[in-house]
C-alpha cells in the first residue's frame, strides 16, 4: 500500500507540468476566442473579422469605457486602424489610408448607426464629434470597415464604412444617470434605461437615452491679422459692428466658442420587429464662422435631425431570412454670418449685412433583403437586396441689410429626386481554409444615371491561425445638392453638371494569431477619379456670371466646384493587439503609411503621410481597484490648407490620453472616471482669418488652435429596475 501511494505521487509529479501547461493553453485559447472580433457591416452578416471581405477594426464598449472615450473621432484616433480625424474648427474631418480631403465634412466616409445612414443629401455631412449626437453609454461596439463599400451601401462609402451598434436591454439593464464635465468648459447630463417586457405573448425590449451637452470657451486671443482696406469703400475693413474700422482681424474671443447639443436615441424590439428613433440638434459657434465679423455673438451654425427606422426580420423556414426596412429622415442646416464690411455684402449694403444660409432635406425609402443559406451551415450564402429612395432638398440664401432691414434673396432652389438600387452578394466556403465573397450593386439615380460597384474577396488560411486576404472593390459618391447648386453673388458660381467621384482599390493582407496576440500587416493601392474640388473661375466664366446676374459687378475673383483631378494612394497598415494576465492587461498598436499624389503629382493638403496609435490598459482587479489606461496617437506633418506661405506645414502632432476608471468602495452602482489629455503641438493644418499677404507682423499662417491640455470627470450611477 505504501509502495502504490509513492508510485502515484511520483507519476503525478511527473505529469503535473504537462497538465498545467495544457490548462494554460486552454486558458490562452479561451482568451483568444473572447478577443475574436465579429463584424457585420462588411457583408451584412455576422462573421469573423479575419475572413470578412474587408480590413476592419471592432472597438468594443469595454475599450470605450477603459480609455474614457466620449466621441467617435476619439475612438477612431486612439483605437482603430487606418483612420484619422482632424479638427477644422467647425467639426472633425475624417481620412483613411493616405486620403484626407479638406472640408468634405465626412462626405467620403459612410456613417451608420444600427445600419441607418447618417450622411444627409444636402451636403453629404456626417459628424464624428459631439455633433454626431449618439449617447456613448448606449454603444455596444463600433465597426470600422476600411476601403470602398458601395457594393452594399451605394454612395459615400469611398474611404469605408463605420457602423455604430447600440446595446440591447440586457446589456443596458436598469436606469443610468450620468454627469460629466471637461473642466471647466463643458458639461453633459444624461438619463437612460434598458428594460425587457412581454406584450401579446411575445418578448420585447426597450433601450433609451436622452442627454444634453453644453460647452463654452476656452477664451483665446487670435491675430492680429492686418487685412487692410475694404474693396468697396476703400476704408479700413470692418470686422465688428461695435468696434471701429481698423482693417485688423483678431483680438480676444470671449463669447463665441460654444456648443449646445441635446439628443435622444431610442430603440424598441418586439417579436421580429425593430423600431429606432434618433432626434438631435447641434448649435455651435466659433470666432471666425463664415469669414464675416470676428467674435460676433450672432454668428452660429445649427443642425437638426429626426430619423426613424422600422425593420422586420422573417424566417422563411430554416433556409432563408427576409428582412424588410422602412426609413425616413428630416434634416435642417442653418448658418448665420454677420458682416460689417461692405465687401462681404451685396452692392449697396455699405453699412453691413447679416448673411443667412438654410439647407433642408427629407428622404424616405424602403429596403427588402433576402439571405439564403443553401447548405444550412454558412458555407454557401446568397444575399439579394433592393433599395429605393425618394429625397427632397431645398436651400435658401439671403443677405439682410442691417441699416434698412431689407433682405435680398440670392439663391432659392428645390429639387425632388429618386434612386433605386439592386445588389447581390455570394459567400462561398468550399473548404474550411478558404472563404470567397463576390458581389455587385447597381445604383440608378435620375440625375447621375447608373453606376455599378463590384467587389471580390478571398481569405485563405495556409497555416494554422494565419490568414491571407486579397480584395478588390469599387465605390462612388454622388455629389450633394450643395456642391452642385451653391452660389453666392459675392464669390461663388454654381456647378450643376458635376460627375460622380469613383475609387478603385486593391488590398493584400496577412493576419496571424499567436495565443492571445494578433499580428496584422497589409498593403493597399487606391485610384480616385473625377475628384471634386474648388477652383478659381476663369475670366470668361466671371464675365458670363456677371452678365447673367449671378455675380456682383464689382467681383474680380470667384470660385466654383469642378471634377478637377484623380489621385493615387499606395501604402500599408501594421497592427498588433492582444491581452495577458487573464485579460486584465490589454494592449494594441497600429501604424499606417501612404504616399498619396494627385494626377499632377501634387500632395494633398492636410493629409498625413503616416499616423498611428498605441494603447495599454490594466485592470488592477477587484471592485475596490480601478482600471488604468494610457493611449497615444501621432500624426506626421501635413501641408497647411489655403496657406499664404507656399508649402507651409503643420508640425508632427502627438496626443496622449490617460484614464482611471473604477467603482466607489461599498457602492458598486456608482462609477467614476478621470481622464486627462495632452497635445504636443498647438497647430492644425486649417487656416483661419482673412490671411493677408506675409508681413513683419504676420510671419506664418494662423490655424485652428488645439486645446492642448484638458481634464474630464464622469460620474455614472446605475440603478437596477
Give structural notes:
- The chain is mostly beta strands and 721 residues long.
- It is 9% helix and 56% strand.
- The protein has a 22-stranded antiparallel barrel.
- β15 (258-270) and β16 (273-285) form a beta hairpin.
- It is globular, with a radius of gyration of 28 Å.
- The model is unreliable at 1-27 (pLDDT under 50).
Short description:
The chain has 721 residues and is mostly beta strands.
**Span between termini:** 61 Å
The major beta sheet can be summarized as:
22 strands, antiparallel, barrel
Helix content: under 10%
Strand tally is 37
**What is the 3D form?**
globular
**SS strand fraction:** over 45%
Task: Give the helix/strand layout.
Blueprint: H1 2-34, E1 38-39, E2 47-48, E3 55-60, H2 61-66, H3 72-79, E4 83-87, E5 92-96, E6 109-113, E7 116-117, E8 139-146, H4 150-153, E9 160-166, E10 174-183, E11 186-199, E12 202-216, E13 220-226, E14 248-253, E15 258-270, E16 273-285, E17 300-316, E18 320-339, E19 353-373, E20 380-401, E21 407-431, E22 434-445, E23 449-463, E24 466-477, H5 481-485, E25 501-514, E26 517-536, H6 539-547, E27 559-580, E28 585-598, E29 610-619, E30 627-635, E31 638-639, E32 649-650, E33 653-664, E34 667-679, E35 683-687, E36 703-705, E37 709-719
Parallel strand pairs: 6-9
Antiparallel strand pairs: 1-2, 3-8, 4-5, 6-7, 8-9, 10-11, 10-37, 11-12, 12-15, 13-14, 15-16, 16-17, 17-18, 18-19, 19-20, 20-21, 21-22, 22-23, 23-24, 24-25, 25-26, 26-27, 27-28, 28-29, 29-30, 30-33, 31-32, 33-34, 34-37, 35-36
Amino acid at each position: 500500500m505504501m509502495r502504490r501511494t509513492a508510485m502515484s505521487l511520483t507519476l503525478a509529479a511527473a505529469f503535473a507540468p504537462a497538465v498545467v501547461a495544457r490548462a494554460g493553453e486552454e486558458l490562452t485559447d479561451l482568451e483568444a476566442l473572447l478577443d475574436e472580433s465579429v463584424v457585420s457591416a462588411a457583408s451584412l452578416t455576422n462573421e469573423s473579422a479575419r475572413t470578412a471581405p474587408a480590413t476592419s477594426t471592432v472597438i468594443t464598449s469595454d475599450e470605450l469605457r477603459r480609455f474614457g472615450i466620449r466621441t467617435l473621432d476619439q475612438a477612431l484616433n486612439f483605437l482603430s486602424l487606418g483612420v484619422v480625424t482632424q479638427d477644422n474648427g467647425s467639426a472633425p474631418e475624417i481620412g483613411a489610408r493616405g486620403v484626407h480631403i479638406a472640408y468634405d465634412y465626412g462626405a467620403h466616409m459612410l456613417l451608420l448607426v444600427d445600419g441607418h445612414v447618417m450622411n444627409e443629401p444636402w451636403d453629404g455631412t456626417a459628424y464624428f464629434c459631439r455633433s454626431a449626437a449618439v449617447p456613448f453609454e448606449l454603444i455596444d461596439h463600433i465597426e470600422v470597415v476600411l476601403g470602398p463599400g458601395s457594393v452594399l451601401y451605394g454612395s459615400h462609402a469611398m474611404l469605408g464604412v463605420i457602423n455604430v451598434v447600440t446595446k440591447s436591454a440586457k446589456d443596458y439593464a436598469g436606469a443610468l444617470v450620468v454627469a460629466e464635465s471637461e473642466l471647466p468648459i463643458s458639461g453633459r447630463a444624461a438619463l437612460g434605461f434598458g428594460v425587457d417586457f412581454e406584450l401579446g405573448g411575445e418578448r420585447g425590449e426597450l433601450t433609451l437615452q436622452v442627454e444634453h451637452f453644453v460647452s463654452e470657451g476656452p477664451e483665446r486671443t487670435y491675430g492680429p491679422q492686418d487685412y487692410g482696406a475694404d474693396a468697396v469703400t476703400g476704408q479700413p475693413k470692418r470686422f465688428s459692428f461695435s468696434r471701429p474700422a481698423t482693417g485688423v482681424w483678431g483680438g480676444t474671443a470671449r463669447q463665441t466658442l460654444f456648443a449646445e447639443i441635446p439628443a435622444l436615441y431610442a430603440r424598441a424590439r418586439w417579436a421580429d420587429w425593430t423600431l429606432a428613433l434618433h432626434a438631435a440638434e447641434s448649435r455651435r459657434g466659433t470666432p471666425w464662422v463664415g469669414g464675416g465679423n470676428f467674435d460676433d455673438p450672432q454668428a452660429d451654425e445649427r443642425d437638426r435631425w429626426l430619423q426613424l427606422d422600422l425593420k422586420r426580420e422573417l424566417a422563411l423556414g430554416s433556409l432563408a431570412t427576409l428582412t424588410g426596412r422602412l426609413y425616413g429622415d428630416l434634416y435642417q442646416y442653418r448658418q448665420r454670418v454677420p458682416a460689417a464690411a461692405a465687401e462681404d455684402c451685396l452692392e449697396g449694403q455699405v453699412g453691413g449685412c447679416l448673411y443667412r444660409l438654410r439647407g433642408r432635406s427629407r428622404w424616405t425609402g424602403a429596403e427588402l433583403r433576402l439571405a439564403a443559406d443553401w447548405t444550412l451551415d454558412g458555407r454557401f450564402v446568397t444575399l439579394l437586396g433592393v433599395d429605393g429612395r425618394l429625397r427632397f432638398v431645398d436651400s435658401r440664401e439671403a443677405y439682410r441689410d442691417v441699416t434698412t432691414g431689407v433682405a435680398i434673396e440670392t439663391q432659392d432652389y428645390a429639387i425632388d429626386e429618386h434612386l433605386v438600387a439592386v445588389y447581390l452578394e455570394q459567400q462561398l466556403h468550399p473548404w474550411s481554409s478558404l472563404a470567397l465573397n463576390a458581389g455587385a450593386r447597381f445604383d440608378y439615380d435620375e440625375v447621375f444615371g447608373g453606376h455599378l460597384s463590384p467587389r471580390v474577396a478571398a481569405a485563405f488560411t495556409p497555416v494554422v491561425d494565419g490568414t491571407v486576404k486579397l480584395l478588390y472593390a469599387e465605390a462612388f459618391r454622388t455629389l450633394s445638392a450643395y456642391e452642385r447648386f451653391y452660389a453666392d453673388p459675392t464669390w461663388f458660381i454654381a456647378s450643376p453638371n458635376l460627375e460622380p467621384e469613383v475609387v478603385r482599390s486593391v488590398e493584400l493582407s496577412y493576419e496571424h494569431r499567436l495565443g492571445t496576440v494578433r499580428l496584422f500587416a497589409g498593403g493597399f493601392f487606391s485610384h480616385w477619379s473625377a475628384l471634386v474640388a474648388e477652383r478659381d473661375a476663369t475670366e470668361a466664366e466671371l464675365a458670363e456670371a456677371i452678365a447673367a446676374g449671378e455675380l456682383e459687378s464689382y467681383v474680380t475673383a470667384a470660385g466654383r466646384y469642378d471634377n478637377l483631378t484623380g489621385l493615387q494612394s499606395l501604402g500599408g497598415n501594421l497592427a498588433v493587439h492582444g491581452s495577458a494576465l487573464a485579460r486584465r492587461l490589454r494592449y494594441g498598436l497600429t501604424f499606417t503609411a501612404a504616399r498619396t499624389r494627385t494626377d499632377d503629382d501634387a500632395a494633398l493638403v492636410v493629409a498625413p503621410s503616416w499616423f498611428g496609435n498605441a494603447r495599454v490598459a490594466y485592470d488592477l482587479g477587484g471592485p475596490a481597484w480601478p482600471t488604468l489606461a494610457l493611449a497615444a496617437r501621432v500624426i506626421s506633418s501635413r501641408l497647411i490648407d489655403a496657406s499664404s506661405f507656399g508649402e507651409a506645414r503643420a508640425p508632427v502632432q502627438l496626443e496622449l490620453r490617460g484614464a482611471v476608471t473604477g467603482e466607489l468602495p461599498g457602492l458598486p452602482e456608482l462609477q467614476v472616471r478621470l481622464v486627462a489629455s495632452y497635445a504636443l503641438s498647438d497647430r492644425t493644418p486649417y487656416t483661419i482669418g482673412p490671411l493677408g499677404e506675409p508681413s513683419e507682423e504676420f510671419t506664418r499662417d494662423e490655424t485652428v488652435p488645439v486645446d492642448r491640455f484638458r481634464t474630464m470627470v464622469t460620474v455614472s450611477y446605475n440603478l437596477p429596475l
